[in-house]
Amino acid sequence: ARGWRISGFEFDALADADSVDPSIVADLKPAFLLSSPAILAAPAAHLVGTHAPAEIALQLFERVASSNKRRALLLVGANAMAERDRPTADRILDLLEPGHPGRQLLTAAEPLPVSILDDLGKVQLREAVRKRLGDRIVVS
Known about the structure:
Blueprint: H1 8-15, H2 22-26, H3 30-35, H4 38-51, H5 54-65, H6 72-82, H7 86-93, E1 112-113, H8 123-133, E2 137-138
Parallel strand pairs: 1-2
Helix pairs in contact: 1-4, 4-6, 4-8, 5-6, 5-7, 6-7, 6-8
């Protein structure tokens, strides 16, 4: 995204901000989510889910869904989107294959086991996603 030099800590703060300049979100492209280190990709997915227009976010996550190494980011995006647009959040989760336990992220009464992340990306990404999802995921 525009050759930014930003630390994971700064990206986390940006992802958690109440409002973000629309140009920042507009600069986040699928390639950034697909190729950035996990420490940046997870908060970027949250930023998109929280602040991008719903249709733009859905298109971006459709591209992410095509990468087996990055599908855990769908959970972050859907979780962030759910607070403002539940139907779009559900559509993001629908990008996971039918029957995948991650599809229950927004409907489960109890936190889901960390094992739902097992087939959704590399260890570093799964850990960054687990931290970003907080109490929605439980480590057994």
